[in-house]
Amino acid sequence: MSDTRRQFRTDSGPKRLSATVVAPQPQSAAETQPIQESRRTRLWATAAAAIAVAALLYSAQERRPTGPSAGRLDVRLLATSVPVTEPARLRIGTYNIHGGKGTDGRRDLSRIAGMLGQLDFVGLNEVHGPGLFERDDQATLLGKQMRMTAFFAPTEERWWHAEFGNALLTKLDVRSWHVVPLERRYGKSFRNLTHVRARAANGAPVNIIVTHIDRSDDLERHEQLRAVGDFFLALQKPAILLGDLNTDSSDPEIQRLLNEPDVVDPLAKKKGFQTPRHIDWILCRGLESADAGISPVGPSDHPHVWAELIVPPSVD
């Protein structure tokens, strides 16, 4: 009996499991080389892709000039016509809209439109092109609000689109336009001028320049201003210069223009009006000034300058 119990305990006791552990065999150099080369290839491909993306982004953010161009405008709404033998009234303005951003930091193009009133022609500066997911530039948006024909003349491209430049809004019959780049050697931004050949309400031809002079370098500003002034003085009268010239009346180049016997500054001609210091200008040749004014800043960080001019009958 005791033998049986002893045998039972022995048979029912815990059993030990045994296992054979096989140590991993080291891979040969011939076997590990393809794995290392694959990892190295992936690392190089990743690095090359990162460099390519960085180069693409760096290239996209660089400012590029837009170059010269020319064409015609299809004007939807003409100014009220008058007999060709009578003088015509021409209401014009220049406005650096600062991308529609006001002094309160809010961007609102409707406030810009409200400042422009019943103008026949307005030159605009610091106009932004369409955003990444937008279709229209700011000039086109303003034109739709004001029922005026818009033309955007970008000075530079960034991020694969025309980003920044000048523009015009018009009710006049624009027969032709051409954009002339201004030389840039020292400044940060590219600039241009847009020369428009239009017809006033009495059919008389009028030459109009819209421009924005650089301010980042004194020598650059001087050279650009001289080039624009020479262009303006060479135009057949009547002629108008509109734009942010980034300098006031103390500048020798402005004085050169004002000292020309046929150049008129409408603000200076307004009786009883104390002209404040300003860098946005309207100058004309072969035209008489009937009225002029300058607004305070608010919708933009620049004032809006306007004038009402008398266009004589055409001599054609």
Based on the coordinates given, report the CATH architecture. 4-Layer Sandwich
Q: How many beta-strand elements?
A: 14
Percentage of residues in helical conformation = 25-40%
Mean pLDDT: 85
Q: What number of domains?
A: 1
The arrangement of helices and strands along the chain is HHEEEHEHEEEEEHEHEHEEE
Low-pLDDT ranges: 1-10
Approximate strand percentage? 25-35%
Look at the structure and name the CATH superfamily. Answer: Endonuclease/exonuclease/phosphatase
Would you give an account of this structure?
There is one protein chain. With 316 residues, the protein is an alpha+beta fold. The chain has a single domain, classed as 4-Layer Sandwich (Deoxyribonuclease I, Chain A), CATH 3.60.10.10. Helix content is 28%, strand content 31%. It is built from 7 helices and 14 strands. It has helices at 2-12, 29-61, 109-116, 138-146, 218-234, 252-258, 266-269; strands at 64-65, 69-71, 88-96, 121-128, 149-158, 161-170, 173-182, 191-199, 205-212, 239-244, 263-264, 280-285, 288-294, 304-311. The strands form 2 sheets. A 7-stranded mixed sheet has the order 1-5-6-4-3-14-13. α3 crosses α4. The termini are far apart. Mean pLDDT is 85; it is low at 1-10.
List the topology elements.
Elements: H1 2-12, H2 29-61, E1 64-65, E2 69-71, E3 88-96, H3 109-116, E4 121-128, H4 138-146, E5 149-158, E6 161-170, E7 173-182, E8 191-199, E9 205-212, H5 218-234, E10 239-244, H6 252-258, E11 263-264, H7 266-269, E12 280-285, E13 288-294, E14 304-311
Parallel strand pairs: 3-4, 9-10
Antiparallel strand pairs: 1-5, 2-7, 3-14, 4-6, 5-6, 7-8, 8-9, 10-12, 11-12, 13-14
